[in-house]
Amino acid sequence: MKQAVHFGAGNIGRGFIGALFSNSGYHVTFVDIADQIINQLNEQKSYQVILATDQQETTTINHVSGLNNMTQEQEVIEVITNATYLTTAIGPNILPRIAPLIARGILERVYQTDEPLYVIACENQIGATNILKEHIFDNLDEDTKERLAGKVFFFNSAVDRIVPIQKNNTSLDVLVEPYYEWVVETEAVIPHVEGMTTVKELAPFIERKLFTVNTGHAVIAYLGYLNGKSTIDKTLADEAIVNQVEATLKETGDYLVKQYGLDKEEHGKYIQKIIDRFKNSHLNDGVTRVGRAPIRKLGPEDRLVRPATEAQKAGLPYTNLAKAIAAALLFDYQEDEEAVKLQTMIKESGIAKVLSEVSNLPEESEITQEIMKQYDALK
Ligand SMILES: NC(=O)C1=CN([C@@H]2O[C@H](COP(=O)(O)OP(=O)(O)OC[C@H]3O[C@@H](n4cnc5c(N)ncnc54)[C@H](O)[C@@H]3O)[C@@H](O)[C@H]2O)C=CC1
Ligand SMILES: O=P(O)(O)OC[C@H]1O[C@](O)(CO)[C@@H](O)[C@@H]1O
Question: What residues does the Mannitol dehydrogenase C-terminal domain cover (predicted)?
Answer without folding.
Answer: 202-378
